[in-house]
Amino acid sequence: xxxxxxxxxxxxxxxxxxxxxxxxxxxxxxxxxxxxxxxxxxxxxxxxxxxxxxxxxxxxxxxxxxxxxxxxxxxxxxxxxxxxxxxxxxxxxxxxxxxxxxxxxxxxxxxxxxxxxxxxxxxxxxxxxxxxxxxxxxxxxxxxxxxxxxxxxxxxxxxxxxxxxxxxxxxxxxxxxxxxxxxxxxxxxxxxxxxxxxxxxxxxxxxxxxxxxxxxxxxxxxxxxxxxxxxxxxxxxxxxxxxxxxxxxxxxxxxxxxxxxxxxxxxxxxxxxxxxxxxxxxxxxxxxxxxxxxxxxxxxxxxxxxxxxxxxxxxxxxxxxxxxxxxxxxxxxxxxxxxxxxxxxxxxxxxxxxxxxxxxxxxxxxxxxxxxxxxxxxxxxxxxxxxxxxxxxxxxx
Amino acid sequence: xxxxxxxxxxxxxxxxxxxxxxxxxxxxxxxxxxxxxxxxxxxxxxxxxxxxxxxxxxxxxxxxxxxxxxxxxxxxxxxxxxxxxxxxxxxxxxxxxxxxxxxxxxxxxxxxxxxxxxxxxxxxxxxxxxxxxxxxxxxxxxxxxxxxxxxxxxxxxxxxxxxxxxxxxxxxxxxxxxxxxxxxxxxxxxxxxxxxxxxxxxxxxxxxxxxxxxxxxxxxxxxxxxxxxxxxxxxxxxxxxxxxxxxxxxxxxxxxxxxxxxxxxxxxxxxxxxxxxxxxxxxxxxxxxxxxxxxxxxxxxxxxxxxxxxxxxxxxxxxxxxxxxxxxxxxxxxxxxxxxxxxxxxxxxxxxxxxxxxxxxxxxxxxxxxxxxxxxxxxxxxxxxxxxxxxxxxxxxxxxxxxxxxxxxxxxxxxxxxxxxxxxxxxxxxxxxxxxxxxxxxxxx
Lengths: 397, 445
What we know:
The complex is a heterodimer.
Chain A: H1 3-8, H2 19-53, H3 58-92, H4 94-103, H5 105-131, H6 137-161, H7 167-171, H8 188-196, H9 198-213, H10 221-253, H11 259-277, H12 281-309, H13 323-353, H14 364-396
Helix pairs in contact in A: 2-3, 2-6, 2-9, 2-12, 3-4, 3-5, 3-10, 4-5, 4-6, 5-6, 8-10, 9-10, 9-12, 10-11, 11-12, 13-14
Chain B: H1 18-51, H2 57-90, H3 92-125, H4 132-161, H5 167-171, H6 174-178, H7 183-208, H8 214-243, H9 248-256, H10 258-281, H11 288-313, E1 317-319, E2 323-324, H12 342-348, H13 350-353, H14 359-362, H15 369-381, H16 396-399, H17 405-416, H18 430-442
Antiparallel strand pairs in B: 1-2
Helix pairs in contact in B: 1-2, 1-4, 1-7, 1-11, 2-3, 2-7, 3-4, 4-7, 7-8, 7-11, 8-10, 15-18, 17-18
């Protein structure tokens, strides 16, 4: 694809802030999104195994509904966290994003309904399993398959977007225009690597689960030990598989000796050691986040280099600075988002640790965070209306 | 090299691609409005339950919350990005314009989404796991976060209709684009609808509780009747205000079908007023089948035609009154350094300036004329009109029935000269007019 075409496909409005910021936000939010994709698929997959053992095995009787619940909440979170990288990518890589979406228009439309059906069926699985131990197997398997298919569709979009030299052939093979939107591309080794990560992620989750319930009065030592040991096994085996798939992928794209890739491999080895020793799974999770950021960085590196070679550098995107709206975002993100999410997570953590009813009104941290969240939201609303009225008066009077 | 930033074209046979956005959009509106309305209602009920120590209200809230979680948040949170997705396929430059103007507004909305998605689980699952006071506080923050998402999206969808003032074109500022004359009426129109929807959904839940506790079911149905009635009134009131803030081209489209639209709205208003009054006066008569059917009526008779109308009233634009539905930039926006693409298209032709037109169709010859005309028809017309002789969505067969090449050409000339203010003033070079007219005539509509 000619550089002049790629540059012409950029939005003529320019971008409202420096491209590197969008790039960094993309890497960060994709890593968060991916973490919950992997946790969702990993916990769902393992819960399906759990439904086979749930009736007769005490550990699986407790663990299976918790895995189903984890999968359920993770799907919600992966959706909401997925909105952010989707937003940032189309700011700086709009030629790639929009071309892909038009070439795969039918799949784009189908993707949404696949996700709805898959998630609704997952709720069905949740209720069926709640009603009867071991229940909902078939629905669970179908739901899992449907959601995996949604993931494959998303993979298709990612792969097509980094094939700019092929776009014209996809759209008009032999000069005959195809408007059908059925373009579909898969990069098997990349897909295998991404899917393989579900195993170590659910392994580390199980180590965390074991650690978390170890202080609860109503959990048994057997369950704590069993989940820790299962977590270690899954984490270790999963990381080895992922590492092999990653190396093969990197060799194929010719990036194996790149510093970012070496850093990722070192990160995986550190993670492997920590998973195997399982000294403190919360620290392991911290390292997992770093590795997730590195993997997100690797994806971006491949795309950035590929586009730069074609003459499209995101750093040359014309900037039309837009100060008021980024100020709103930063303040909302840091203050409202920070305090608000801290409030919800602190409360959830403490509810999870409490047997019976948790009295948040007597808990200093929860109480204060709740009051601050409420006050910040009130102030936010007042600022919004004040800002809007000022702009409107300025423009109409 | 004279090229403009047009993308490959995605076209769904018989219908075009805009209807796909319409379907996802309509479902999203039902789910998202229900969820914000329900968040407000939830806060109201939690307040009442806490102040009056009505412990019997909590099971209702739990049921309502589960419904809210499954229906509104699952569907709403998927179809929200879903509109984006289908819009990128159907109208890439329209959505790109919104993204590049409002990326930080969307990012801010995302912060509220994150709060909402974690919050809704806490709200529902912790209802009997935390003390009532903490739960009340949680419902208040949740309601504010939900209204926050509306506050942030409303300026963007209002901008799709038009910026409302000339300020944006001069400054290019997101604030000027966001706070147009129709932003606030639009916001309160939707808040009214959200309140009404929260009551409508509430009636499904309250009527389903009859067997467990008839007295409570009746009390709640009555309350939901009041809530819906108030919401409906707010909707109607702000709808009038909103209509007064729309641009001329919107009224031109509206006037075409004005009478039937008004008739439809009057019938809906009467039917729903009677339904809500029935819930207040005779709550016993409301059952789950009726309450659920009314949601379907809203979806099919209210939202779907309403969304179609809103989309039609934007014509010929898709965003900010500077991008046409067929993805062509139609005016300068000095504040952003944006230039109209109409002059270069008039000079060189669409086939020459679109980078995704294959080489064999760049130059029109006797042998490729019909093929080039077909591609031109898709590029210029298919975002709004289906092209086949059996087309379903605003089909050209109805507009060009029985016309020959010269008749079609004269219409194309009139459109290109700006003679129809709801059609893009797209002027083409003579050879492209000719190929387009020849292809359309060959269809024998």
